[in-house]
Amino acid sequence: MRTKTLQKQWKAYTKQFEQTNIKIPELEALRPFMGARGGVLKRQTRSKKQKEAFKQAAAGVKDILG
């Protein structure tokens, strides 16, 4: 999944979450890696371990979105 697509999905999810307070676990896995404006945080994805965790979270989002 491309980063731009992921960022758009994250923005849509956070907007929907503010209105309904319904959490989606696959998208919540991205929370540590995403900033307030919807971008991927560079500091959170520096190490190999964190990059792998981000890739797994992104893959989980791709699975639910198709």
Number of strands: 0
Indicate the percent of residues in helices: 55-70%
Overall number of structural domains: 1
Largest sheet: none
Provide the structure class: mainly alpha
Rg for CA atoms: 11 Å
Query: Which spans of ≥5 residues are poorly predicted at pLDDT below 50?
Result: none
Beta-strand fraction estimate = under 5%
Nearest-integer average pLDDT: 92
**Distance separating the two termini:** 10 Å
Shape: globular
- SSE sequence, one letter per element: HHH
- Counted by DSSP, the helix tally is 3
Task: Please describe what this structure looks like.
By secondary structure, this protein is mainly α. The model has no long low-confidence stretch (mean pLDDT 92). It has one domain (3-65). The chain contains 3 helices and no strands.
Task: Give a summary of the structure in a few sentences.
The chain is mainly α.
Topology:
Elements: H1 3-20, H2 25-28, H3 48-65
Structural descriptors:
66 residues; mainly alpha; 3 helices; globular
